[in-house]
Amino acid sequence: MRISRTKILPGLIVMWVLAFVVYYGMPPLEDMLMQGEHWLFDYLTWQNGAVDNWGYRILWAIGDLSEGTVHKALFASVGVVLGGWIAHVLWKKGSSKMGCPVCANTGLFPWIVLSAFVGLFVSSALYAGNLSVGWVPTFLPGCTIPPALVLMYGKGPKVAISAGVLCGIIQFPLGNWGTNMATALGLPGIAGDAVVGMCVAGILIMLIFPLLPWIAPLEKERRAALEAQAAAAAAAKPASSDEPAPLPPTVSDKPFWLVRRSLADFTEIYFYGNEIAGVCLIAGMLLSWVLNPAHTGYGGPYFTSAILAAQFMGSSLAIFLYFGCWQKYGFYNTFTASLAQGAMVLTFGTDLKVLLIGAVLNAVIVPFCAFKASSLVPKRFHSVVGGTCGMGIGIGIVGLIMKGILAVL
């Protein structure tokens, strides 16, 4: 059953109205909050303190979890885990209030969280001293590759801890090099993070991981399961029917499904993919902003509101445009538009034209590149390595186009 995207148009309108409310409503409040007493440290104090102070370094590692959504804030990280846990509990109870099934309906949420935080603490312990020269991507082991390894090899401390440690050691050096290369080319740094720190490092990690003696038996089981699935798919004969295929369980024809999906997209980088976690992430970020506007948005004035508004625009537009793909596949890489929007604001500033032009370009280009690249990945690797590579390439393309457009405006 194919549904016209006009069905979800009301959700798109809601998200864009909300984006403009955020963009124009938060800056005046930020001016007021900056004049009052601050109950949370500012971003520069946080970053500089993490260089040689272990208290700040631990807090930096916790905040790095929300760095994956371009919303680095202490309570944003707390919020997304809390929201994910609520969704996980509701999933275990079979509650209809759980929203989109957290962690792709696998029940692996606790182990995914463990792998991410092990990776973040290892990364910060080894590499946070590099913050003395400015921002560096210590956040990389908190998203994409550790949860992908848990999804590939299953639950248990040996999988989660091994994934976190290996990613914590390997991802930063490659990601930092990629960031520097992208920045030298005048592109958003996240393009280099994605292509090198997530894709290249991910491939390397996925080659090393099954060689670990305690993981090797799990690799044999995984390969046997993949072979069994392939054999079952080959033997299966499609049933002939004139009835239209039902919608995938991840997609709804209700008008405001787009709103829920947009909020869930905020957490897809962690493999949570749940709107409760998305709401709690945003609520935690806003709490941090209220406690000190200089804590969020990397300490830049009005960056918090611009990033959030841009992401509301880009993610919702991508879901609207690729609604047919959502119906066909049950999932599409629309969450990449949200990350790309944050990168554009950080690179080109908070002007409304950056948000609007970026929303259109990122919604059209980045999800398509991510999906196509993910479809080319061999089964021995998780598709996330292709998706992140495509995302990085797409962000690089959009960055070049944005530079050209802004140069003539």
In words, what does this structure look like?
By secondary structure, the protein is mainly alpha-helical. Helices cover 68% and strands 0% of the residues. The protein has helices at residues 9-35, 43-49, 54-67, 74-93, 109-127, 145-153, 157-184, 189-208, 216-235, 257-265, 275-291, 303-321, 323-329, 335-348, 352-374, 384-408. The longest helix is centred in the middle third of the chain and has 28 residues, at 157-184. The termini are far apart.
Parts with pLDDT < 50 across at least 5 consecutive residues: none
Radius of gyration: 21 Å
Q: Could you tell me the mean pLDDT?
A: 95
Shape, per Cα inertia axes: globular
Distance between the termini: 44 Å
Largest sheet: none
Give the strand content: under 5%
Total count of strands: 0
How many helical elements? 16
Range of helix content: 55-70%
Q: Could you give the topology of this structure?
A:
Layout: H1 9-35, H2 43-49, H3 54-67, H4 74-93, H5 109-127, H6 145-153, H7 157-184, H8 189-208, H9 216-235, H10 257-265, H11 275-291, H12 303-321, H13 323-329, H14 335-348, H15 352-374, H16 384-408
Helix pairs in contact: 1-10, 1-12, 3-4, 3-5, 4-11, 5-6, 5-7, 6-7, 7-8, 8-16, 10-11, 10-12, 12-14, 12-15, 14-15, 14-16, 15-16
